[in-house]
Structure formats: structure tokens, C-alpha cells
Amino acid sequence: MKTTQRLIPPTWDKVARHPLLPEAGHDEIARFNFLANLNLHISGEILPGVKEAFEQRAEPRFHAEHGRAPADRHEVRALMQRDPYYQWWSALRRNAMEMRQQAGRSLVLRQIDELNAVASTLNQAETLELNPELPLPRYVSAVDTHCMPGSYHGALSADDVSAGANYDCGLFITTAGLLGPYSDGGGRAIVEWLQREHPQFAPRRILDIGCTIGHNIVPIAQAFPEAEVIAIDVSAPVLRYGHARAKALGVDNIHFVQMNGEDLSRFADASFDFVTTSMFWHETSSRAMPRIMAEIARVLRPGGLTVHLEQPQYHGMSPFEQFLRDWDTYQNNEPFWGTMHEMDLTALMEGLGLPPQNQFQISIAARIDSADYLEKPVAKQEDYGRAPAWNAFGAWKPQTREHVA
């Protein structure tokens, strides 16, 4: 069996410390390091065998029965579910995610009182605005997203930050440390792209939708220190953690607000220069996504920019690759994943006044500042949903109505 090049991830001691990051003991560090390496082993050493099982066993059997190749990812999935090698790979991947959640939760809950106290001190500011009356959309409340108990909104006390703390420390495991010391490689990648391709772009007002713990908006806020930055999410625990985390890192120009991106009526038309999201859309729904995108188009100023970090759309991919990428839909508690990645984003944005000639799609990889982190292999590392290699799509809003035609 052919194998991909093995990468050695950085160890937990290379993770950058801040007052909100849970402290880990010897056994906890060993567990985190083991799980990070396990994820790389599953994607690098075991995953290639899934393709061999398809090409050498499953696809020939399907062709013999039907006289054709599988037509789409759904037929591939029905076929591969019976294959023992795929079952093994899928079970390992699911169990690795469950172990990651267990490791993170146990680390956080052991010291949750201390973490809540630190966060409460840092959160005594007007730049955190929570709304306990805000209804949670069903796509958030009905599922423990990527196996996280309580998802982003589960809380154990009035000032709980456990969901945010678990998410923060667990990103090291999920991405094998390849998002950088602060797990902010996505936000840094956007900043680098802007500085390289659009050095004159200097937004004065920035909106981040679905910010979770703010790990990707922090480097953007740092790159534009004069800008007013608003980061929104529907879940209070991650906002508490994210706000305190930003304050602890010395970032004071972000206003964290509990708000649903489907209703941005608080903001006037054409009131933001830059609107962004990071790995957010696949956790919404087929009804919510067009509503949120419509609100983005409304609040974006003429000449403004919207950029969205996501995994690439399925268009042009083989049914087998779509099937692999669709694993999260069925096995990682992300039910909108497949539907979102088959949507026609060009048509969606065009219908909202963002014409195709103003749109773009680019490949983008996590940017890492520390020498302790492996930069060179990052762009090639692909785990079909978790790796720090993405597709970014977006558009510039036309300056005038005439440009929409």
C-alpha cells in the first residue's frame, strides 16, 4: 500500500499560552500529543487505503452489477459502507474526534472555576454584549456539532466558558497543531492575502459572523488596529471566552455581540467595509445561508469586500472525492456539510447584487509565524474537512448600481 509523506506535528508545549488557555499536566499533554499524531496517522497512513479499496474492490463490484460506474457520492457511500477497510478508517476517525472532545472537556472541567473567574475579570467591559433572550437557531441547538457535548452553546453556570476553552485547546488535536501557536492560521491567511493582493484596502469597519472564540478575527483586528471590529455569534459561552481571550492578548478593537447573522437589522445598509466568516457556512442550514448572505450584501458598502473561508465546493470533483469530503455530514454531526458544498455560490451571490465579475475563489492555506510549526507541508496537507488548507470565496460589492448589470 502506498503511503503519503508522514508529518510530525508540533508538541503541546509549542502552543502559545494566554490566561484563558487551560493548563495541562503531564498525562494530559501526552494524551493531546498522542491524539494529534493519531489524526495525522489516520489521514496520512490509513486514508490512502480507502481509495485503493474503492478502486480495487468496491467500484469493480458495482460496475459488474450495474454496468456503469457510481453516478454520485451517494452511490459511492452506499457502496463503501459495506467495505471493511472503509468501516475501519471511518470508525477510527469518529473515535479520534470523540477522544479529542473527551480529552478537551476533562482538561477544561478540571479547572473550570479558575477559567470562569479569569474570564469574568476580563469581561468587565462594554465590548462584550450578550443577549440571553436570543433564540438559538435549530441548526445550532439540535446537534452536538462535531461531537462536542453541548455544542458551542452548552453552559454549566451563568458565566461558563467551558465550550470556548474546549474548542480552543482542542483545535491543536483536530488540526495536528498546523493552525499555528494561537490556532489563528486562517485569519492570518486572510490578512496575508489582503496585504499581498490588495495592499490599498484599509477597512474602517469589519464584521465577522459566526466568530466562535474569535481566533480568526483577532489577527485581522491586529492588522487593522484603527478599524472598528464587530464579531458576532449566537452562543454565549464561546463569546465570553473569545472576548476574554482577545483582551488577554491585548486586542481591544473587537466588540463581541451575541447575535444571529440571519438578522443584522441592528446595522444600517452599507455600514461595513469588510464582512468575513471562517468555516462557518457548513454549520448553518439551507434556509439560513441565503438569509445571512442577503444580510451581508445589504450591510456591505459599495466597494466593500466579503471573504469566506471554507472547504472547497464539490463542483468538478469525482464522486469518490465528494464521498470522502461528505464524511462529516454523516459521521461528524455536521448535517448541512454536503448540501452546503454542492450549492451554486456564484448564483447565490449574483442574485444578491454581487455579480460574477466581482466574485472570486482562491486556494488558501494557514499562515504560521513560529519556527516550531511546519510551514512547508501545510498547503499540501488535506484531511477532507479538517486540514488547514481551504477554499476562500467572496466578492467585491459594485461601486454603483450600473456595475450590477
Summarize the structure.
This protein is an alpha/beta fold and 405 residues long. The chain has 14 helices and eight strands. It has helices spanning 26-66, 73-80, 84-109, 112-122, 138-141, 162-174, 185-197, 217-223, 236-248, 288-299, 319-325, 327-331, 337-341, 345-350; strands at residues 128-129, 205-209, 228-233, 254-258, 272-278, 300-310, 359-365, 389-396.
Helices, strands, pairings?
Layout: H1 26-66, H2 73-80, H3 84-109, H4 112-122, E1 128-129, H5 138-141, H6 162-174, H7 185-197, E2 205-209, H8 217-223, E3 228-233, H9 236-248, E4 254-258, E5 272-278, H10 288-299, E6 300-310, H11 319-325, H12 327-331, H13 337-341, H14 345-350, E7 359-365, E8 389-396
Parallel strand pairs: 1-4, 2-3, 2-5, 3-4, 5-6
Antiparallel strand pairs: 6-8, 7-8
Helix pairs in contact: 1-3, 1-6, 2-11, 3-6, 4-9, 6-9, 7-8
The backbone outline, from C-alpha atoms, is: globular
SSE pattern: HHHHEHHHEHEHEEHEHHHHEE
Low-confidence blocks of residues: 375-381
Strand order of the largest sheet: 1-4-3-2-5-6-8-7
Radius of gyration: 21 Å
Note the beta-strand portion.
5-15%
* CATH topology label: Rossmann fold
For the record, the CATH architecture stands as 3-Layer(aba) Sandwich
Query: Which structural category do the helix and sheet elements fall into?
Result: alpha/beta
Q: Helix count? A: 14
- Count of individual beta strands: 8
Q: What gap, in angstroms, lies between the N and C termini?
A: 54 Å
Average pLDDT, all residues: 92
Could you say how many structural domains there are in total? 1
Q: Which CATH class is shown?
A: Alpha Beta
The largest pleated sheet is described as: 8 strands, mixed
